[in-house]
User: What shape does this take?
Amino acid sequence: MERKDIRTRSIDESIWRDLSKDTFRQHLVNLEETTNAVPIAPQYFSAADWLPASPHDPNTKYSLPLVVEQRLADDFASLVAVDEGAQSVAAVCIEQHLGPPSLTLRFAALDISLNNETKTALEGWSSILSTVDADREENGSNAMKVLYHSIVRLHRRRLLARLRSSHWEKPKYLSKSHKKPLLKDIDNLIHRAQFSHTRKEAESRLQVEKHLRDLVSTYQAFENISGNHLEDLYSLVAASFEFCSTASIQDFLVRLEDSIGSTPTPQVASAIKSLRQIQKIASYRRIPISLVSIATRYPQMFTHGLSMAYLPPYQSIPTLIGYESWARTLHVHAEVQLALH
Assistant: This one.
């Protein structure tokens, strides 16, 4: 796929007319040096905060409400960001067609332009979702299993990276970095549970600690495997999803977040980060469940398969200004690509 020129305006009309790109980039690097490249916590904004509610008949199967459309776009954006690294991001725009009912997914994703494996997977997932029948529960169950296994296979490298597993082959730019496996971070979570519950809440605390220790056992068993570990990876992701779905763990995360003042202590920040990382692993189980659920509720939108459209990426530009030696290539963000389309 041919890449687009990043120069979309003349010098007189450019946003860089009054401030050079190098100056702007140097300011970003200065900020990274000041904060040790640790980003602030993300902020979440609901569409309900800035969009008026669109009239929608909840009984219709011919159009998706905004919240469902948003979830579908977010899930597919996660699924097509396959490789490791900051450039492996994606954005998706959902286009609904009412006559006949159908969906077009428009992707801005660098990984898709680099190989055909992701495109092939998308076509397969579209085919799987087209078979879901609201009147036949076994169809949905079979579709979910096939979809789940396909997603985990495609994202195997990314999952191993999130686990910081001994099975993970580090990319060259991370060859000198040494981070302990995620399962070792869970010890801090067990320790933090003692401070998140009062003495009267000992039973709740013990439940949290049990769930955490069970997860450690699952992760450790995976590390001890030699040879093909794909089947065990299916089980690990499913166990992570069950862990994140338990009420006591969800309550534990809320307690940790509520304990933060203006600035979290390093221990609390580390604990929240570890739980978020486990949630990211669990999402590879959550997403197929969500997709099958949507296809079951709105079968007419999936019956004929999803149409896929791919935006050509913009050129990458080398730079000498970077916080890390391996982070000296500039990319146009996927969401910017969609905005410019």
Summary: Residues 266-297 form the longest helix (32 residues). The chain has a mean pLDDT of 85.
